Amino acid sequence: MAARGSESGAPGWPDGWCEGWWQAATRLDSPNFGTRPEGMPIDLLVLHSISLPPGEYGGDAIERLFTNRLDFDAHPYYQTIRGLQVSAHFLIRRDGALLQFVSCDQRAWHAGASSYCGRENCNDYSIGIELEGLEGERFEAAQYEALQALLAGLRRAYPIRSVVGHEHVAPGRKKDPGPGFDWARLRSSVASAGLELPMI
Q: Which residues form the N-acetylmuramoyl-L-alanine amidase domain (predicted)?
């Protein structure tokens, strides 16, 4: 098991957690994950944005993509991602609904080629959170509220130190969640937590 923070509750997990699964989230198991390096502290959160097809919200295409059930012939855009096998730990829908695809103790496939503070391969030590949205567009109040609650839960189970965007760990390659994400709002909501956030 990857290294976590101090724990309480039974059996060895903080309230609301079981084997890396946040019980407040709807569980949809993805086959797209791997084992984290032994003893690796999970101390980084990477925020992403996603919508399938781009700019369309509310369907089940994201869930299907992360569980390898997407019909790549169902929309012309899907031809550009045919065969892609990816995942994130969490997805926050526009209405604040929370889904989890991979145990946080496991390595989800969300960041790709990436680095943070000189450490390569962010997937090894990060938790990936997808926000349903389009880079450059605004996100919903319900999503910020769900994200704040999720961050609080994650910090009870893991030694989270920093929250960044995909754009910060893969600059030039990725631009999400993009300028529509309100980092100042997130910073205000977690001010007492002492988390490191990008200076925007």
A: 30-178
Return the sign of the alpha-carbon dihedral for residues 141, 155, 188, 168: negative
Instruction: Report the Cα–Cα distance between both ends of the chain, in Å, rounded.
Output: 35
The domains of the chain, with CATH numbers, are 17-193 (3.40.80.10)
The one catalytic residue among 130, 132, 135, 167: 130
Q: What is the pLDDT of residues 106-146, one digit of tens each?
A: 999 999 999 999 999 999 999 999 999 999 899 999 999 99
Residue 95 has pLDDT above 60, yes or no: yes
As a whole number of angstroms, the distance between CA 188 and CA 175 comes to 23
Residue 30: closest CA among 82, 80, 96, 103: 103
**Residue 61: both structure tokens together:** 């295409």
56 is catalytic: no
On whether the CB atoms of residues 77 and 53 are closer than 8 A, the answer is yes
- Strand, coil or helix: 26: strand
Calpha distance 84→179 (Å, rounded): 26
CA proximity to 166, closest of 115, 102, 97: 115
What tokens appear for 104 in the block? Answer: 């946080």
Residue 137 C-alpha from the chain's centroid: 18
Place of tokens 């407040």: 24
* Number of Cβ within a 10 Å radius of residue 194: 8
